[in-house]
């Protein structure tokens, strides 16, 4: 088994997070997968942005849920990256899926619905993923574990993974209880024993957000299933060095 490297919000250490330039850069450097965040606009369109408000990452202000998709996709989402030759915008999920369908990338969709429980989000996102024939290489994750349980009820074949920051006593049993096929713990919760025991129960382990070389090397040596990182190029170099 080889560890898969997921670009967290794309190649976000070098490019504007959750934008096409970041996703393209992650793909070009050889990342196995891309992790991105989905919310719903005021008019119910899935858009790719992490925060519930646009204030931090764009040249505007306001809550995503109170702005239309047309307005959101015109904002400058790369305001801190002056060197970019073209404006980085907030993409729609459909735009990303259309591009990803022409690649071999694995997709990790994080549903950002723990603060605002967007009504119908699961149905909308799952339908779109199926429309682009990407269901077999998509993993759904969320801090809202009820949402993951709902995804399983909509599509029993869907791969889901609960995100968690605080330790869960028996995470493999918890994952099974919500029909998840993996767990996505914060890296501080990951030990060699946790990886081995969880994998013995046929549950995969992918840690977030791992950016230190020493820790990346340690997790690879422990045969973790996936590493979610802001710097996929660095993680891939660690993986290549480990194989030699």
Can you walk me through this structure?
Helix 8 (213-221) crosses helix 9 (232-243). The protein has 244 residues and is of the alpha/beta class. Strands 1-2-4-5-6-7-8-9 form an eight-stranded parallel beta barrel, surrounded by seven helices. It starts with a strand and ends with a helix. Helix 7 links the parallel strand 7 and strand 8 (204-207). 47% of the residues are buried. It is built from nine helices and nine strands.
Helical proportion? 25-40%
According to CATH, the fold-level topology of the domain at 4-35 and 107-243 is TIM Barrel
Reported for the largest beta sheet, the result is: 8 strands, parallel, barrel
CATH superfamily of the domain at 4-35 and 107-243: Phosphatidylinositol (PI) phosphodiesterase
Strand fraction: 15-25%
How many helical elements? 9
Strand element count = 9
Topology pattern, helix = H, strand = E: EHEEHHEHEHEHEHEHEH
Q: What radius of gyration results from the CA coordinates?
A: 17 Å
Record the SSE blueprint:
Blueprint (H helix, E strand, L loop, with lengths): L3 E5 L11 H10 L3 E8 L5 E3 L20 H4 L20 H8 L5 E6 L9 H11 L6 E5 L2 H10 L4 E6 L6 H7 L4 E4 L6 H9 L3 E4 L5 H9 L4 E4 L2 H12 L1
Parallel strand pairs: 1-2, 1-9, 2-4, 4-5, 5-6, 6-7, 7-8, 8-9
Antiparallel strand pairs: 2-3
Helix pairs in contact: 8-9
């Amino acid at each position: 088994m080889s560890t898969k490297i997921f670009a967290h919000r794309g190649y976000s250490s070098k490019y504007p997070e959750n934008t096409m330039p970041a996703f393209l850069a992650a793909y070009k450097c050889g990342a196995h997968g891309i992790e991105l965040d989905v919310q719903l606009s005021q008019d119910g369109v899935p858009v790719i942005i992490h925060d519930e408000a646009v204030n931090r990452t764009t040249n505007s202000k306001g809550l995503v849920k109170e702005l239309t998709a047309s307005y959101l996709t015109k904002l400058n989402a790369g305001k801190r990256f002056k060197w970019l030759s073209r404006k980085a915008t907030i993409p729609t999920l459909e735009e990303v899926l259309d591009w990803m369908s022409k690649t071999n990338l694995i997709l990790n969709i994080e549903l950002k619905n723990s603060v605002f429980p967007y009504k119908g989000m699961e149905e909308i996102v799952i339908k779109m993923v199926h429309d682009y024939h990407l269901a077999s290489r998509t993993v759904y994750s969320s801090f809202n574990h009820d949402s993951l349980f709902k995804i399983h009820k909509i599509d029993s074949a869907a791969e889901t993974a609960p995100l968690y920051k605080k330790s869960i006593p028996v995470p493999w049993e918890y994952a099974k209880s919500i029909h998840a096929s993996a767990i996505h713990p914060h890296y501080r919760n990951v030990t060699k024993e946790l990886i081995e025991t969880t994998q013995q129960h046929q549950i995969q382990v992918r840690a977030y957000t791992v950016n230190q070389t020493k820790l990346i090397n340690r997790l690879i040596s422990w045969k973790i299933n996936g590493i979610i990182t802001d710097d996929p190029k660095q993680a891939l170099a660690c993986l290549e060095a480990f194989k030699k």
